[in-house]
Amino acid sequence: MAFASSNREGDAYAIPRPSGRIKLKETSGDVASRIYAREQRRYQRQQERIARVNGLPFPRPRSRSTSPLGAPRTDIDGGVDWASWSARRAGNRKQRMEEEEKWMEEDISRPWAAWEFSHSTGTADPTIPARYRTMPSSSTFQFTHSASGSSFTFTHTESYPQPRTAFREVHLSGGVAPSMGSMTPEEYAQWLREGFAGLQNRAEMNERERRRWEQTRQEQERVIREEQEEKQRQRRERRAEKRRTEETARIVEDGKSAKRARYVARWKAITTTGGEIEETNITFDDIPWPVYDTASIDKPQVKEFMVDMARQNGEDVKKTLRETIRAFHPDRFFGRILPRVRPDDRERVKEAVESCSRIINALAGEL
């Protein structure tokens, strides 16, 4: 039996064609996606206005696809049933991976941040299992009573509502819209705004912390650099001081060496027959005294001079002292040299010779 066409004019059973597109009822997921996209655009415009007022560049974020795998042209494309449970499972797995990457990127600058129920505003370490990062959703209490061979167990389970944290579920651009749950569209929009504000506050806080760590690092590098420069300066000063000390010691030693050479030369000139000053009037300063400074002829001065003379000649100090004892023996000196001393200096020379003789004999007795 054939049915008559419903398009024939004048047919009593003709079905009228729809005047426009069929509007399906909007689901809660559609409402959430629409409000989510609207609030993302509003937040981006707000941040762009703030950046323009402050004269800062505002890079527009790239939109993220809400479809994990991308919508195929048909339900069956390339021999794959995209509507099957395998495709849905793959899409859910990719969505979870994207969310984990997002949290890892946000938490990379705060690896030891506090948990969400702590007083800190940081995020949890992604390596810590979720059961240790969240409060328990329920608790169970059991009580067992035994008496007269009978027992009974009382079990009480109490559930705790788990509050949702907006900034953990929202994205600044793209992404899957969080579930509305039991919220109204107005409450959902306000909840999204709080989440965006939380993300912004976290970003600002992370930036402040990064700057603080950068300042701390620069300060530490400055302190280390100053310490190294100070150590280098001290080393340069020590080397310069060492060079000055060595130069001063060299000059002093050269002066002492010249005085010892003069001491030997003057003794030869005085004691040699027909010498340079044999027939002249000898002054106090012409006599070679066994000291570097004739202003003070004392035991330390004579000892230093004798030790240096022995070291210069490569001789024993006792041998040098014996030769000096013969040179400054009072009887020998007064008989051979004192008559040639100028009369004004004779008394002074006599006292100095007697003092040198006593000091040299005392040193010889000590060694």
From TrEMBL:
<dbReference type="GO" id="GO:0043124">
    <property type="term" value="P:negative regulation of canonical NF-kappaB signal transduction"/>
</dbReference>
<keyword id="KW-0677">Repeat</keyword>
<feature type="compositionally biased region" description="Basic and acidic residues">
    <location>
        <begin position="204"/>
        <end position="249"/>
    </location>
</feature>
<keyword id="KW-0539">Nucleus</keyword>
<feature type="region of interest" description="Disordered">
    <location>
        <begin position="51"/>
        <end position="78"/>
    </location>
</feature>
<dbReference type="GO" id="GO:0005634">
    <property type="term" value="C:nucleus"/>
</dbReference>
<dbReference type="InterPro" id="IPR038753">
    <property type="entry name" value="NFKBIL1"/>
</dbReference>
<protein>
    <submittedName>
        <fullName>Uncharacterized protein</fullName>
    </submittedName>
</protein>
<keyword id="KW-0597">Phosphoprotein</keyword>
<feature type="region of interest" description="Disordered">
    <location>
        <begin position="203"/>
        <end position="249"/>
    </location>
</feature>
<keyword id="KW-0040">ANK repeat</keyword>
